[in-house]
Amino acid sequence: MNLLAEDDYYDILGVNKSASQDEIKRAYRKLAKKYHPDRNPDSTAEERLKKINEAYDVLSDPEKRANYDRYGAADFQGINMNGFGSIFDEIFKGFGGFGSGFQQRSGPKRGENLRISINLSFEEAFFGAEKEIAFERRIACETCKGSGAAPGTSPVRCKTCGGRGQVMRSMGGFMTVSQTCPHCQGLGEVIETPCKHCKGTGLQTERLEVKIPIPAGVEDGMGQRIRGHGNAGPRGGPHGDLIVMFNVEPHEKFVRRGLHVYLEQDIPFSVAVLGGEVEVPTMHGASKMKIKAGTEGGTVLRMKGKGVHADDGRKGDQLVRVNIHIPEKLSKAQKEYLGEFGEVFG
Which pTM does this prediction carry? Predict the structure, then answer.
């Protein structure tokens, strides 16, 4: 979901534009706790949390934050700002030579993000874990050091754009806009003698194995971003990110919803009638659960703190739906007792 233009990422997180990364992280954690659906029953909490996540995604990334500070939210809504600088340049040139400063050669492009999926057991997602993952990504060519040019040669200035990476296009009258140079793809340079190892791409494939921490409480379909572990950009461009998506396997007894755990548990008929305690399995080990006298089948009982213990300190509960176990075969004495019970209580 994209934020509307009037939404300000700093206002959403409640920080100043000069806020440090630590201040932004603390503000995000506080708001994420406040508006998490498990803790906030308000119908707007989920929508608010989406905006908080989007704001943090931008402001926690120095490159994205710099672009946002310069161009605003439009840069993240698919609006291409290229060309507006050239319009301003052309207009201001007639008024003393002022320019907007947009008309510069494009810098090295950031590499693409990679996305992989890994399977987690119910226990790994519940308690957290460390997983070793292996994947292939594109890195700078070892032979040409990412330049794309054969050793002993160098890229040369693009003749089409004069090294600017942009070419001008007339829109009629006095207005002109700049576009990415089609010959050098905005790099301002072209390779006349390509590197034989990478065929001029400046990239080669690497197999990488890394260990990643899985925080306690992740759910099926969630993802984790590992910055700088994606593909390298062309001509020495920075690496993109690695997005790891989680597929959580179901448990034979427990079902998770957020931080809470749900369980179906049989209890003896006598305990349901008279009350008492029964031993109930939890993800933290077997625990005693109190049963009030007269408990009916289908009643849901809460075991505080027996759910997920998230890394940020939040704790969920275990909710147990009790089913009353009625024995199929009764002894003569048991039948007599039940008969007397029925006569007394109707």
Answer: 0.58
Q: Is the pLDDT of residue 198 over 90?
A: yes
Task: Give the three-state DSSP class for 256.
Answer: strand
CATH class as words, domain 1-79 = mainly alpha
Instruction: Identify the CA nearest to 19 among candidates 55, 72, 71.
Output: 55
Distance between CA atoms of residues 310 and 225, nearest Å: 18
Query: Nearest 10 degrees: CA dihedral of 79, 85, 86, 87?
Result: 80
Q: Show me where the domains of the chain are located.
A: 1-79, 255-345
CATH placement of domain 255-345 = 2.60.260.20
pLDDT interval class at 41 (50, 70, 90): low
97 is written with which tokens? 């030579």
Distance, in Å, from the CA atom of 160 to the CA atom of 181, rounded to the nearest integer, reads: 7
Question: Rounded to 5 degrees, what are φ and ψ at 174?
Answer: -90, -10
Coil, strand or helix: which one is 107?
Answer: coil
Instruction: Mean pLDDT check: name the lowest of 94-108, 241-255, 265-279.
Output: 94-108
- CA distance linking residue 325 with residue 269, whole number of Å: 6
